[in-house]
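To whoever picks this up:

The nightly regression suite flagged Carboxypeptidase regulatory-like domain-containing protein as changed. Nothing in the input moved, so I suspect the structure step. Input below, exactly as stored in the fixture:
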Amino acid sequence: MNFKQYFYLFAVIVFSFSSCSEDENLENSPESKIYNIAGKVEKGPFIGGSTITIQPMNENLQVVGHVYSSTIQDNLGNFSFGSKSFEAPYAELIANGYFFNETNGQLSSSTLNLHTLVDLSDDTTVNINLFTHLKYQRIQKLIADGMEFKEANKQAQQELFTAFGLQKYVEKDASTISIADGTDESAALIAISSLLLINRDEAAFTEYLAQLSKEFSDKGFFEENTKQQINEDKQAILYRLSSIKDYLIGHYKKYGLEIEVKELVRYLDWDNDGTAGNETLQEGQEVKLEKTELNVPNEGGTYTIGISSPIPVYLNEITTENAFTNNIYENIENTDISIEKSLNEDKLILIISPLQSKTAKSTTIQICDCLDNVLGEIKIIQEGNKNASIPKLGETGKQLVTEFTSNIAQGFAELNLIEQYYHYNVETDLVNQYINVSNNTIENIWNNFYRANYIIMRFKDAEAEQLNVYQDYFNVFSVPCSIII
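Regenerated output under the current build:
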């Protein structure tokens, strides 16, 4: 074999190895895939012109390929990147812009950044919201610790939703939830988004989100001081949830879209038991009471009333306050029905003390949820004690009698003075002169008698609500006062 033959043989062998290597590389290299990427950016919805970028990544969240930029198309947060070719299905999206503030019904005064990490192979409809933003750093942390994207995303979502008591909605990925969907998940998103924004301007909100994201990324839950802040924010937002709902519906209607928003109160964990929505009755649920009225003898007693409820219930006794009721009597502190109340599983236990009043009294105990929504009422009527002794007046009682008699005395003094002027000067003009010069004399007389009558009637009503032992005395004074007035 000559040199030329050796050369050709060597070239064929090299080419064969080279071809095999190239074929192997082609088999192992990822194939690009076309993704048609669109979605929404929502806090409240970002407004048109806000910017959004998408950065392709590999399974380790390392940047690959080019960054693509776009703008939000309308005031409802919609965006689209069109068809893009990515070597891997993973991507980071970042939105920056002004947004509709659902807590006050106005556009934000400054911009906000929101992030999300997604696997486009699952769904190319990608929404960016508070849920995706809060779990963004947690996903990064879990992948850095060796977890695959799918499992990291699943764990971060589970942890985040659990932190807010929303475990029942964890199966729907945050990047597929929109506040305009009218679903339970969208109501949960609205509730949490509003909770974190309430009573904060955009600068404070941005700072708060950064704190929450960092804290959650490290541990997958929130610290106790953060939980305390969240609880305080719940109280601040409680009576504004209805207006938040109305603001959002109105905003979307302004741009031609009718949306449904469920009752937001059901998507916050009010009693901090780890589950949102179990504190209020759902549609079709009710609380049943074994009794709604209880008649009690004067000596009182212990009573048990069965309660059937699908949710935790609490007690609230209706009381009426009167400025005249304190210290009417000497050495008697309590003249109302006195009840020790307790809830033991499905039973209401009442220990009722003897009643000091001469006449029967009543009170009402309300069964409520943790938000003070009344679920049922029990009226308690206790017999009076006709043989109750008459106590001495206390400090308030003495003061009221003094004010009453002082006003009566002053009124009669003014009235007697006019009568004397009339008697001795009936044929002169002095009576008219006196009244004209002292032109508020008649007004003073009227005011004194009116004030006396007001005091005695209020005092009479207040005493009737308590021991009801001085009514005959009040009647002696109240009738003449009414006649004078």
